[in-house]
Amino acid sequence: YTIEADKVKAHIEPTMYGIFFEDINLAADGGVYAELVKNRSFEFNSHLAGWQERQKNGGKGSVEVVDRTAQRPENAHTIKVNIESNTGSFGLSNEGFRGMGIKKGETYSFTVTARKPAGSLIKLIAELHNASGNVIGTGTLTPTSANWKKYNVKFTATATEDKASLYVWLKGKGVVDLDMVSLFPQHTWKNRPAGLRADLVQKLADMKPGFLRFPGGCIVEGRDLVNRYQWKKSIGDIDKRENIINRWNTEFAHRLTPDYYQTFGLGFMEYFMTAEDIGASPLPILNCGMACQFNTGQLVPMDQLDPYLQDALDLIEFANGGPNTKWGKLRASLGHPKPFNLKMLGVGNEQWGEQYIERWKVFTKAIKDKYPSIKIISSLGPFAEGKEFELLDKTFRGLGADILDEHYYKAPKWFLDNAKRYDNYDRKGPKIFAGEYAAQSVATGSPENKNNWECALAEAAFMTGLERNADVVNMASYAPLFAHVDGWQWTPDLIWFDNLRSYGTPNYYVQQLYALNKGTDVVPLLNDGAMVSGEEGAYATASIDKNTKELIIKFVNTTDKAKPVTFSINSTSTYQKTGTVITLGNYKKDAVNSLDTPTAVSPVKSTIGLSGKSVTVTVEPATFKVIRLKMI
Ligand code: AHR
Q1: What's the pLDDT tens digit per position in 458-478?
Q2: Looking at the predicted structure, is the pLDDT value of residue 547 above 90?
Q3: Rounded CA gap, 566 and 614, in Å?
Q4: What is the C-alpha separation between 527 and 541, in angstroms, rounded?
Q5: How does pLDDT run across 171-228, given as a tens digit for each residue?
Q6: Which residues form a coiled coil (predicted)?
Q7: How is 26-76 classified by DSSP, letter by letter?
Q8: pLDDT at residue number 179
């Protein structure tokens, strides 16, 4: 193979490899949002879902759900607990999201909002129970006010348990009203109070993503319009963020997620801040007046789109506006005076059809009139190919769209066959965002899909084609991102977790290797003068990194035989005698990672010697290799 290392073919955008986040598979509530209490504000349709009344030693009491819709429509339910006897204990327990993950030595912060009439004297004892019912942490607080007030106590856990539950005992006599019953670990991502699970955000940071797309996915759209994602309801005081049923709350037996709601504890402020923390460009996707077309497909009439348009315009001001703008001022008051530097946003998630096109036109005009430099991401639906895809593609190209969002959940073979997909795309037309993709080991949507090596290797091969065409493809993200091992609807997923642990799949390591080794500019990698894209199972791309002065070669061997390969570098630069090789491969097709073997499939680093401007390496069967060579 020859590498023309001085002939820059395309610039690689810093956004190239990013993250798609959606609250599916308990990704937010029950996942990255570190709240341990399920249904903390009693807003689930079944208001005591997740809660159970408890008595011990003859304790007596009752729990009543109180509706205060008239005063607080966005947080309409509280509970009134009446303690009827001074002896024994009465209370409630909360099961958490498939249990609660508790760590020995960690401090937990228990918070409630409470009020009690004069004359009632009630003490709250919070107890963490392990799966056998033993107490592994406890704290006490006493509500004192007749008005709603927040109370907090911190305590340390004495044991580790992944299926703990929280008991709240009420001792004394009288009545107490409770809401926002919450338990967080003290140690969160950047130790922000009531923040995000540090191990999960760290996995994202370790990918060094170019962008963070949020909040989805189909939840942008909602099953119906009432349950669409509304960013304005996801910011500010946590007890004013209106809970809604999650679009992924589903009745299917194999899809283990009844009682799946969105509390919006992970809301737009948290998304923007997380993007900033991990060095990713924020990419919000907004509802364009259409509910999920796989469900109700409800449409907002064209003459009633104004509130939706206003949400889009206000979001840009919220992200970028100065202190004298309404929404910029609000952002500052929420703790972030500096703008978030929003450069792009998505109009609609995975929409298609005439109804989308007509709404898209109205949105695009309104946004571009006010904010001409904001790039708009336009959906090409879920299709990847076929009539509907071609119609959308042609229409948006004709309309001069900025960036087109293509989705593909396909068999590994499709990924191998499509490594050439972008070779002949129009260089002058819209840029491409490969916004959702993942190789499916069984079939799209099948619960039997596995995050196995066969799929990850096919994605690695396909991604050589993304990178080689970086002048057209500016962004790409695997989807979905997270899944809880005990509560998911969709497979495969990039990162799996339980209540205490998490692991990156083979696919995660492929994504990470691309993101950490993308370079700044593509240079030609040729075999007999032709681009390498699947011939005899070889897929390859090369780039230079102008900042670190390195040549980076990515090579995928999809065959079951080792390939000895030599790269001859045409360049005026000279190279250090030793380079670095990162190898991910030589695994069986069905190799996977798991919570117990989280790095069974993971990259291994070694060194390699150069002979002048030539380097020879053996690429093992079913292997993805990255080679970094430093210029002198
Ligand atoms: O990633 C899972 C779902 O797949 C997304 O919510 C949707 O956009 C697509 O259909």
Answers
A1: 999 999 999 999 999 999 999
A2: yes
A3: 7
A4: 11
A5: 998 999 999 999 999 999 999 999 999 999 999 999 999 999 999 999 999 999 999 9
A6: none
A7: TSTBTTTB----TTTTS-SSSTTTTEEEEEETT--EEEEEEE-TTT-GGG-
A8: 98
Residue 454 catalytic? Answer: no
The three-state (H, E, C) secondary structure of 550-606, written as one string: EEEEEEEECCCCCEEEEEEEECCCCECCEEEEEEEECCCCCCCCCCCCCCCCCCEEE
Distance from residue 514's CA to the centre of ligand 1 (Å): 23
Closest of 192, 216, 173, 227 to residue 60, by C-alpha: 173
Query: Rounded CA gap, 24 and 22, in Å?
Result: 6
CA-proximal residue: ligand 1, atom 9 (nearest): 217
Chain centroid to CA 207:
12
Structure tokens at 330: 């609000």
Residues with CB under 6 A from ligand 1: 22, 24, 216-218, 349-350, 382, 436, 479-480, 490
Q: What is the pTM of this model?
A: 0.97
Atom index in ligand 1 nearest the CA of residue 436 equals: 1
Q: What share of the chain is helix, strand, coil (3-state, %, to 5)?
A: 20, 35, 45
* CATH level 3 topology of 2-11+522-630: Immunoglobulin-like (2.60.40)
Place of tokens 């250090």: 576
What mean pLDDT is predicted for residues 313-320? 98
Would you state the pLDDT for residue 256?
Answer: 56
Domain boundaries for CATH 2.60.40.1180 within the chain: 2-11+522-630
Q: What is the pLDDT of residue 253?
A: 36
Read off the pLDDT of each residue in 484-490 and give the average, rounded to a whole number.
91
Catalytic residue among 13, 127, 270, 350: 350
User: How far is the first Cα of the chain from the last one, in angstroms, to the nearest whole number?
Assistant: 22
- To which H or E segment does residue 407 belong? strand 403-410
* Percent over 90 (pLDDT), the chain: 95
Query: How far, in Å, is the centroid of ligand 1 from the Cα of 132?
Result: 38
Q: How far is the CA of 490 from the centre of ligand 1 (A)?
A: 9
Q: Are 462 and 454 in contact (CB under 8 A)?
A: no
What's the number of CA atoms in the CB half-sphere (13 Å) around residue 400?
3
Model confidence over 14-33: pLDDT tens digits?
Answer: 999 999 999 999 999 999 99
Kindly state the greatest CA–CA separation across the chain. Answer: 90
Q: What is the CATH number of domain 51-185?
A: 2.60.120.260
Of 599, 615, 609, 619, the residue nearest 460 (C-alpha): 619
Distance between CA atoms of 115 and 109, rounded to whole angstroms? Answer: 19
Summarize the confidence of residues 60-75 as an average pLDDT: 97
Q: Which atom of ligand 1 is nearest to the CA of 216?
A: 6
Measured by CA distance, the residue closest to atom 8 of ligand 1 is 217
Question: Per-residue confidence at 86, pLDDT binned at 50, 70, 90?
Answer: confident
